[in-house]
Amino acid sequence: SILPPREYTQDGQLWVRYVSPTPAYKVDVMNLQDELDKKLQSRQARETGIDPTREELFSQCFDELIRQITIQCAERGFLLVRVRDEIRMTI
Q1: What is the pLDDT of residues 45-62, one digit of tens each?
Q2: What b/e sequence results for 2-21 when a residue is b if at least 16 CB atoms lie within 10 Å of its CB, and e otherwise?
């Protein structure tokens, strides 16, 4: 329940993304950082400040970090979800 499947539409097709139960390693985190940087650049997000593209990409990255941490320690994952939800409500 902490990490439900995500539904989204891409190119007119409905996709459902399920959470992988595979634990993350250091290389996975490094790849996530590289992928975030590439997407920020390819989508021409602002380097700083408020930008809907930055917000979306960082939100996706944070959700992935929550997934990785939750697999190792559910309690930490629940706390991070609480922090994420509070941030979203505040913004």
Answers
A1: 888 887 888 888 999 999
A2: ebeeeeeeeeeeeeeeebee
